[in-house]
Structures are given as C-alpha cells and as structure tokens.
Design a protein that fits this description.
The complex is a heterodimer of chains A (194) and B (218).
Chain A (H helix, E strand, L loop, with lengths): L13 H15 L2 H21 L4 H18 L10 H20 L19 H6 L3 H13 L2 H12 L3 H9 L3 H20 L1
Chain B lengths: L8 H8 L5 H13 L1 H20 L9 H14 L27 E2 L3 E4 L2 E7 L7 E7 L8 E3 L2 E8 L2 E2 L4 E2 L4 E4 L8 E2 L5 E8 L2 E3 L2 H10 L2
Antiparallel strand pairs in B: 1-3, 2-3, 3-4, 4-11, 5-12, 6-9, 6-11, 7-8, 7-10
Classes of the chains: A mainly alpha (194), B alpha+beta (218).
The structure holds zinc ion (2 copies).
Chain lengths: 194, 218
C-alpha cells in the first residue's frame, strides 16, 4: 500500500476526470463520457453489491440500474459540493438498501432523500467543499490510517450486518470493533483538518 | 438556530454505509437538513464510501451490459414521470416547519393521547412497518418515564424538553437506547413537537404508562 501524505500534490486527478464526465453527461447528454463512467463504476458497484450479499445476477442488474440513475440524475450533480465518487457511491448504497428491503418483501421507493436533494443553505460550509480536491486529501488520509482501522472501516461499508459480523470474523469483541470505527472516523477528521 | 445535540459518528457511519432502518434514517435526515455541520460530517463519510468503492476490484460485467443499460435509459426517457405523492401533514404552530425528509410521507391528523398530548403517525411509503411518529406535547407536560428496547431517535421540530440528561431545543437530535431511562419534560412557555422513530419498543415504568404506550404502539 502506498503511503501518500495528505499534503502532497495529488498526482493524476482522477476525481476531476470523473467530475468532468458527470458534467458532460448532465449538460450535453455525452454518451462517450457516460461510457467511461460505466466502464469504471459499474464493475465496482457490482463487486460492492456482491460483497454485501447480492447474487451475481442481481448485482449485475443493480449495477446497470445504478448507472441508469447516474444518467437520469446527472443534472443534480454539483462538482463544487461532492466528488463524483461520493455521489455515485450514494446511489449504489441506496440501491443496495432497496435490494435488501425487497429481499425482505418490502416495496421499494426510488425517491430516497439525499444530499442531492437537500438545500445548500449555508454557503460558508459548502465552500469548505467536498469537491475533487478535498477528496484527494481524504484519499491520502485514508491511507494513513493504521491497518486495523482501515480494515474495520472497509468492513463497515461492505458487510451486510456489520459490527456483530465483523467482530465474529476478526475474533475480537464487539466493543473493540466499535471503538476502532470511532477511532478511524476521528482520525480521518483530524487528518482532514490539517 | 443554535443546535447543541448532534448524532455521533457511529450513527452517521451507519447512515453512510446503509445500515440504518428507514425510520431512523428519516429522523436523521431531518436533522441533516437543518445542521450544516452534520451534513458536512455525513458527506465526508459518504466520500469515504466513494473512495472505498473506487478502490474495489472490478467484477466483470456481462458482455452486453452497456447496451442493456442504454436500452433502459432510452426506455426511461419515453416513460411518463411518476406522479409526486405528497399528503398534507397535520397543522403546525407558527414558526415550526416540516422537514423536507417527510415530503414523500403521509401523516395522520393530531390525535389526543392524554391531557396536553397529541400524536400523529407518519407512514413511510418505502417501509410501511417503519415506526415513525410525531409527538406534540403542551408546555409543562411530560412523557412517562421509560427505557428502550432498541433505539429511539428524536429530532426536535419546535419548543424544548428536558429529560434529566440535557435540554433539547429546536434542531437538536437525540439517540436513546437501552442504557437510557428518561422522562422528557416539556419546558414552560411553549409546547414541544418532535419527530421520532423507534427500532424496538419503549418500556414504561408504570401500569398507566404501559397502557399509554400500547395506545400509540410505542
Ligand atoms: Zn448536527
Ligand atoms: Zn425515550
């Protein structure tokens, strides 16, 4: 694993490229830009859904659906407010939650309330921004976390019944999982503030 | 607005990773609407999810995946937009505002559940079983002493209450669980309106209070 200082100049600005592709989709219905987003994100969303328990066929369907949503809602994407990876993750996450609910026999709704729908009523905070640049710093900060914190964080996002199962999987007490998660989040916040 | 009580990192992470039940998520969303600080924290955790997703290995997609996605997109564009469903919520006193998070939900009229206490059940279309409700309690009145089987999320929409631990005012968020036994008392001067969701039931201390709980499905 490469260690990147959060202050070092970010090398290839992938986040910027994805943001540009999103804007091209939103403003010009640019099909090539969409195909690029598709080839990068769809296979990762599929992997994400499979990791959290969807069978491969369903994960494939949902990954396609996620990208359909990216296309349809691209106009709501604001590169000054969120990185493309953040925004696409939120779509994938909501689909995953919906899929779980459907497995439990509950109807789904695609109108989950999220940041893209929330008012940005505080310019001062919005200006601190979670744009592509901020995201590069966060990427660096993530890599500086101790491995055991990276691990619980990773499992928290990708496992289905996270903390209890993580505890069993790592053979550590539930309380330890929770405190590692809290430490990781606090540590990320500290790294982002400097 | 001076917000003093915020959700902690565990809850925000549960939200970002998609592990909060619908009702709890809704109450949390109504806090995020009002609180730029927590919105920023939540967004940072979504960003972490985005980066982890970005770094995942690619799972191979079907050969015709992109073509099928285009077909879905084109089908969507010719489809009629679904009608937006908004049901009129019960009236609020001047100065109080409904969270936008409830815009797609419906709520019953205010129902009397005790002297100075009214209640409205919120129905969430994506999860009919979600236990979400509004409480409207007059100045000086209180909820019976209770503890919780699961979690209880509360977002204050209007007025203030003190539950023995702290004073909660407009915009404040509270999460209570089995370790907390409290009695929310509405402060003098103004009635208090809260949006709440329960994951599990409440345990009331007294028999009359238990009857009260049964009455409103708490
Ligand atoms: Zn807050
Ligand atoms: Zn309580």
């Amino acid at each position: 694993m490469t260690v990147v200082s959060p202050d070092s100049p970010p090398s290839p600005r992938l986040d910027d490229l994805w943001a540009q592709a999103m804007v091209a989709v939103a403003q010009r219905q640019d099909r090539d830009a969409f195909a690029q987003l598709f080839s990068h994100f769809a296979p990762r969303i599929k992997h994400y859904l499979m990791q959290s328990g969807s069978p491969a066929i369903q994960a494939e369907e949902l990954a396609q659906e996620a990208l359909v949503t990216v296309w349809r809602k691209a106009a709501l994407f604001d590169p000054a407010r969120a990185a493309a990876t953040t925004w696409i993750f939120a779509i994938a996450r909501n689909l995953r939650v919906d899929a779980l609910r459907r497995r439990q026999g509950v109807q789904s709704s695609e109108d989950a309330v999220d940041f893209d729908l929330l008012p940005s009523d505080d310019p001062a905070v919005e200006d601190q921004l979670h744009d592509a640049r901020q995201n590069e710093r966060l990427r660096g900060a993530l890599r500086l976390l101790p491995p055991e914190q990276q691990q619980v964080l990773h499992l928290s996002y990708f496992e289905d019944a996270p903390h209890a199962r993580i505890a069993a999987q790592l053979r550590i007490p539930l309380g330890t999982v929770k405190s590692r998660v809290r430490l990781a989040v606090a540590q990320l916040r500290r790294l982002m503030e400097h | 607005m001076d917000i003093r009580h915020h959700p902690d990192d565990d809850l925000l992470l549960a939200r970002s990773s998609g592990h909060l039940p619908v009702g709890m998520r809704l109450v949390l969303a109504s806090h995020l609407e009002l609180c730029p600080l927590c919105r920023e924290r939540a967004r940072a955790l979504d960003a972490v999810g985005g980066l982890l997703l970005d770094e995942l290995e690619a799972a191979p997609m079907a050969d015709d995946a992109l073509a099928r996605t285009w077909a879905r997109i084109d089908a969507h564009e010719s489809a009629e937009p679904a009608p937006v469903r908004v049901s009129a919520p019960p009236p609020l006193p001047p100065g109080a505002r409904w969270p936008r998070a409830l815009a797609h939900c419906s709520a019953t009229p205010w129902r009397w559940i005790g002297p100075g206490m009214r209640w409205s059940r919120v129905s969430v279309p994506e999860d009919p079983a979600a236990n979400v409700f509004l409480l409207r309690i007059a100045a000086g009145k209180y909820l019976p002493q209770h503890t919780h089987q699961g979690q209880e999320f509360t977002q204050v929409l209007h007025g203030c209450f003190h539950d023995g631990r702290a004073l909660f005012g407009p915009g404040d968020f509270d999460a209570a669980d089995a370790e907390i036994n409290h009695q929310p008392v509405v402060q003098d001067g103004s009635e208090c309106i809260c949006l709440a969701s329960l994951d599990g039931r409440l345990r009331f201390d007294g028999a009359i209070a238990r009857f009260f709980g049964a009455l409103v499905g708490m």
